[in-house]
C-alpha cells in the first residue's frame, strides 16, 4: 500500500514538476493550470468516498486492481494531451482512479494491525505519497530530459502496470479480500450531522492544505520568482516532500505514544496547536532571497501537514467503526481535494499577477482555520 501511494503521487506530481516546460510548449497560463489542477481535485474529491464505499464492500484486492488499472491508463493519456481541454480530461480520469489510494491504505491497516499500532501503520501506508513526491523529480527529470515530457508520462504508465502485476501476487492474503474481517471500534458510521465528522474534515483538509500548495505551486514559483531552470528545479524539488515523509513517521509515533492513538482530546488539542504554529513560517517563504532558506520553509510546511493528516485520521479512527474505514479515509482525502479544487485557480491567478506574498500568506492561513474549527467542535 505504501508502494501504490508512491506511484499515485509520481503520476500526479509529474505534471506539477514539468509544469514550466508543459505550459511553455502548450501555451497555457498559470490560471488555466490552476483549473486543470481543480479538474483533478474535483474528480479525486468525488472518487475518494466512492472508492471507500466500494472497498468496504468488495475488499482491497479486487478494488485496488480496478482502480490502479484505471489511473494507469489515464496517466498515459497525458501523452496525447495538447491543450486545456485534453489535459483536463486526462486529469479527471487520473483523479477518479487515484481516489482509491488512501481508502485502500487505511482499509488494509485496520484489517491487519491492532489499534495501538494503527497510527504508525497509517503513516507507513500514507507515506508513499510523500515518498512519491520525493522521487518524482529525481526519477522524472532525467526521463523528461531524454524523452521529453511525453516520455515521462509513458514511464508513469509502466510503473502502474508493474504494481498491478505485483499486487495480484501479494494480495492473495485472505484478510485483504474479506471486508468483514475489520474489527469493530468506535460508534458506527459517520453522520453528516455529527460535529466530530466536521472536526475531522477541517483538521485534515484545512490543516494539510500547505502540502498541496507546495506540491502544485513550488516548481512554478522557483521558475518564475527565483529564475531556476527545469533541471535545477528537478535536482532540489525532492527536498520539501522529504519533510512530508519524515513527518508521517514522526507524527505517527508521537500520536501513538502521547495521544493514545488519537483517543485523547487534550493531547490532540496540544498537538494541533503546535502544528498550527509550525505552519505560519510558510507565509515568509516568498520574502526570503536564499534558495536554501526557501526550500527549508517548504520542507517545514510539508512536515507539519503530515501531522495534521495523521492526527485527523487517528482522531476519526478512534471514534467510528473500522468497518467503515475506507469511507472515513475517502472523506478525509476527498475533503482535502475539495479545498484544493476551490483554491488552486485563485492561487494560479495570484501567480499570474506575481502576487507571491499574497499566495503564500493565504496558504499559511488555512491551518489556523482548520485548528480553530476542530477546537470549537471539541470543547
Mind telling me the CATH class? Answer: Mainly Alpha
Mean pLDDT: 89
- H/I helix tally: 15
Return residue spans where pLDDT drops below 50 for at least 5 consecutive residues. 181-186
CATH superfamily: MFS general substrate transporter like domains
In whole angstroms, the N-to-C terminal distance is 35 Å
Task: Summarize the amount of helix as a percent range.
Answer: over 70%
Q: What is the β-strand count? A: 0
Strand and helix order: HHHHHHHHHHHHHHH
Oligomeric grouping of the chains? single chain
Strand content: under 5%
Q: Architecture, CATH level 2?
A: Up-down Bundle
Radius of gyration: 19 Å
Morphology: globular
Q: What structural class do you assign from the helix and strand content? A: mainly alpha
Q: Per CATH, what is the topology?
A: Growth Hormone, Chain: A
Describe the structure.
The protein is an all-alpha fold and 379 residues long. It has one domain (2-377): Up-down Bundle (Growth Hormone, Chain: A), CATH 1.20.1250.20. The chain is 78% helix and 0% strand. It is built from 15 helices and no strands. The chain is globular, with a radius of gyration of 19 Å.
Amino acid at each position: 500500500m505504501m508502494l501504490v501511494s508512491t506511484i499515485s503521487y509520481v503520476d500526479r506530481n509529474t505534471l506539477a514538476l514539468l509544469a514550466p516546460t508543459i505550459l511553455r510548449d502548450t501555451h497555457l497560463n498559470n490560471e488555466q493550470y490552476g483549473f486543470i489542477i481543480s479538474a483533478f481535485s474535483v474528480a479525486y474529491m468525488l472518487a475518494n468516498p466512492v472508492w471507500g464505499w466500494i472497498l468496504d464492500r468488495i475488499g482491497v484486492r479486487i478494488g485496488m486492481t480496478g482502480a490502479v488499472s484505471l489511473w494507469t491508463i489515464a496517466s498515459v493519456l497525458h501523452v496525447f494531451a495538447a491543450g486545456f481541454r485534453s489535459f483536463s480530461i486526462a486529469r479527471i480520469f487520473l483523479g477518479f482512479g487515484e481516489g482509491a489510494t488512501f481508502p485502500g491504505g487505511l482499509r488494509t491497516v485496520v484489517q491487519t494491525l491492532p489499534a495501538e499500532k494503527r497510527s504508525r501503520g497509517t503513516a507507513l501506508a500514507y507515506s508513499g505519497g510523500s515518498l512519491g513526491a520525493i522521487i518524482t523529480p529525481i526519477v522524472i527529470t532525467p526521463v523528461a530530459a531524454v524523452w521529453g515530457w511525453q516520455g515521462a508520462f509513458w514511464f508513469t504508465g509502466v510503473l502502474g502496470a508493474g504494481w498491478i502485476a505485483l499486487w495480484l501476487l501479494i494480495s492473495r492474503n485472505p484478510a485483504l479480500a474479506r471486508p468483514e474481517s475489520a474489527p469493530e471500534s468506535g460508534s458506527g458510521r459517520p453522520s453528516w450531522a455529527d460535529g466530530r465528522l466536521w472536526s475531522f474534515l477541517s483538521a485534515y483538509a484545512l490543516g494539510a492544505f500547505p502540502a498541496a500548495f507546495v506540491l502544485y505551486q513550488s516548481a512554478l514559483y522557483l521558475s518564475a520568482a527565483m529564475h531556476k531552470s527545469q533541471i535545477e528545479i528537478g535536482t532540489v524539488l525532492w527536498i520539501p516532500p522529504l519533510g512530508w515523509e519524515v513527518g508521517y513517521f514522526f507524527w505517527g509515533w508521537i500520536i501513538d505514544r502521547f495521544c493514545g492513538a488519537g483517543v485523547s482530546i487534550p493531547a490532540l488539542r496540544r498537538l494541533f496547536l503546535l502544528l498550527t504554529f509550525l505552519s505560519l513560517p510558510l507565509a515568509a517563504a516568498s520574502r526570503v532571497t536564499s534558495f536554501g532558506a526557501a526550500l527549508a520553509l517548504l520542507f517545514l510546511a510539508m512536515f507539519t501537514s503530515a501531522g495534521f493528516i495523521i492526527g485527523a485520521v487517528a482522531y476519526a479512527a478512534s471514534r467510528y467503526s473500522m468497518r467503515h474505514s475506507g469511507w472515513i479515509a475517502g472523506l478525509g482525502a476527498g475533503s482535502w481535494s475539495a479545498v484544493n479544487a476551490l483554491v488552486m485557480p485563485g492561487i494560479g491567478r495570484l501567480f499570474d499577477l506575481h502576487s507571491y506574498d499574497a499566495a503564500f500568506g493565504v496558504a499559511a492561513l488555512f491551518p489556523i482555520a482548520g485548528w480553530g474549527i476542530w477546537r470549537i467542535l471539541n470543547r
